[in-house]
Amino acid sequence: MGEVKALRCVTCGTEYDERSINYTCPACGLRRGTLEVIYDYDRIERTWSRNALANDPERTMWRFLPLLPVRDRTYIQPLRVGCTPAYRFTALGERIGGLAELVIKDDGQNPTASYKDRASSVVVIKAQERGESVVTCASTGNAASSLSGFAAATPLEAVIFVPRTAPEAKVAQLLIYGARVFLVRGSYDDAYDLASEAAEAFGWYNRSAAMNPFLVEGKKTGALELAEQFGWNVPDVVFVAVGDGSVISGICKGFEELRRLNWIDRLPRVIGVQAEGSCPVAAAFERSPETGDEVDIVDVEAETVADSICVGKPRDIVKAVRYVRRNGGGFVCVTDAEILDGLAALARETGVFAEPAGATAYAGVKKLALQGELAGKRVAAMITGNGLKDIASARRVAGSPTEIDASIEALRREL
Ligand SMILES: *Cc1c(COP(=O)(O)O)cnc(C)c1O
Ligand SMILES: [Zn+2]
């Protein structure tokens, strides 16, 4: 079972007992003081193995329980989260840039149709372990719909803050799951600050990105699965879209922990893909010194069609930059046009329909493949959200249907 050894500040390294702290390191503040969950890896290495895992019939992300911050199975929801498919498209990879392998991991197949379910599943359990009754978060849309869905499977109530511009399908998800929903007149960054204040004022448990140390634990399970799906011979490069920087931090942490357990013999390079109109993490990565600890943060006014990664004030930027440095990865930025092209190409070439942020990972693959940088490489792309969440964006590149009379002659004339 997962036993948290400590929560460690990413900036000053101070270790806290799980019972003594809720969110972030008081000495380093909200932005730089995000905490990381540390386990007793020696004990895990002694008591768990790849073989034991192979024989475990559990078909959710909870098959990785010894590496998750949950004591036992009491509060694990019946919802099937994780264990999403990893599809091989070898010929396509060869065609777009001589890739040795192309794997598309479809996380749009989670219960509420995004990668965020991995984090919500964990946090909802932590809330119940702590005896909380209300959970809250701010979100561009998916974290909220995910939290609402997972809260719906428990006795917890969810109170949600999303920007007024969140796509309609995501707002419908929130409401149908029974959350109390506030559409904030402002950006995601404004909603984030309001949710934080509300959590403190009313004593709600806060699932907002980066602030809650247990989110990244759920988010790392995509990497654990990918490694297992590759038979522990991990891909050379893994692409994922970046907004706040939590998903990419989780993916990097997952690979690092597998390396620590000696289950894999090297780390994949992880490439974060950002939208050009919202790329403060990529910019900080470029500005920050290769070896130094200081991450140079400059917030921006964000704008992109990929609403889930439209984040001007990324909350997990310190972790994201540090982790990607450590595994030799990097960042690439793509335009909205490239994102929408990627969305259409992914759907047409693989049958996987992604929302814009999900397709952003594939747009990044295509961009570097075209530049010849992925030749001979085994590449994976994390598709983080389902296309049905934002059909308005898909329709911009989908083309239009042909309307005809209901007769075979009319059809012949059109063909
Ligand atoms: C949240 C999200 C991301 C990015 O995750 P961050 O932790 O914000 O970097 C990417 N794609 C989708 C679909 C998301 O919902
Ligand atoms: Zn600190």
Structure commentary:
- The chain has 415 residues and is an alpha/beta fold.
- Helix 10 (221-229) packs across helix 11 (246-260) and helix 11 (246-260) packs across helix 13 (317-326).
- The chain has helices at 29-32, 41-47, 50-54, 90-97, 117-129, 142-152, 168-176, 188-202, 215-219, 221-229, 246-260, 280-287, 317-326, 336-350, 356-370, 391-398, 408-414; strands at 4-9, 15-16, 35-39, 86-88, 101-106, 134-138, 157-163, 180-184, 205-206, 237-241, 269-275, 330-334, 378-383.
- The protein has a domain at 86-111 and 215-398: Rossmann fold (3-Layer(aba) Sandwich), CATH 3.40.50.1100.
- The strands form three sheets. A six-stranded mixed sheet has the order 4-5-13-10-11-12, sandwiched between helices.
- The longest helix is centred in the middle third of the chain and has 15 residues, at 188-202.
- Strand 7, helix 7 and strand 8 (180-184) form a beta-alpha-beta unit.
- The relative contact order is 0.14.
- 40% of the residues lie in helices and 15% in strands.
- The radius of gyration is 21 Å and the shape is globular.
- The N and C termini lie far apart (61 Å).
- The protein contains 17 helices and 13 strands.
- Residues 9, 11-12, 14, 25, 27-28, 33 line the site of zinc ion.
Would you summarize the structure shown here?
This protein has 415 residues and is an alpha/beta fold. It has a domain at 86-111 and 215-398: Rossmann fold (3-Layer(aba) Sandwich). Helix content is 40%, strand content 15%.
